[in-house]
Amino acid sequence: MVVIPAVAILLVIFVVWQHRLQQQQIRQLAERIAGVSAQQPNQSAELEELRSGVIGVGQRILQLEQALQTIEFNQQALASELEQLTEHQQKIQLFDPDSRLYSRAVKMVQLGAGLEEVMRECELPRAEAELLINLHRQQTS
């Protein structure tokens, strides 16, 4: 009958040992929970900062998209206006023979033609041909 009290004592020792292990695990878990709880306000603040930053970036993107749309609209309007002006200039050049002669004379001067050649080919007086050549020299220098 000595066996039963010895087994009972061993069983009590085992239960006490298990209880201490569980208490130690509970303390460790409580410390981890406390650590996580302490970090939560910081993480919440960081999350709020990130949210604010994302909202700010989103608003900035919207502003930039609107500005881009305005620029594209203005570019299209300017391209249309340029096309109209080019057509108008071409019409004027078709109906104004003097304008065609001056355009040709300017082109010749840009290509390096001399005074006599410009006068002869474009039927311009010497003074006008000299004026065109001098203007071209001033623009290129």
Relative strand content: under 5%
Structural class: mainly alpha
Query: Could you spell the SSE succession in H and E letters?
Result: HHHH
Number of beta-strand segments: 0
Low-confidence stretches: none
- Overall 3D shape: rod-shaped
Biggest pleated-sheet summary:
none
Helix share, percent: over 70%
Overall pLDDT metric: 87
Counted by DSSP, the helix tally is 4
First and last CA, distance: 125 Å
C-alpha Rg, in Å?
46 Å
Number of domains: 2
Question: Can you give a write-up of this model?
Answer:
The chain is mainly α and 141 residues long. It has two domains: 1-83; 96-141. The chain has four helices and no strands. It is rod-shaped and about 145 Å long. The mean pLDDT is 87. It holds the Pfam family DUF2802. This is DUF2802 domain-containing protein.
Blueprint of the fold:
Elements: H1 3-95, H2 97-110, H3 115-122, H4 126-140
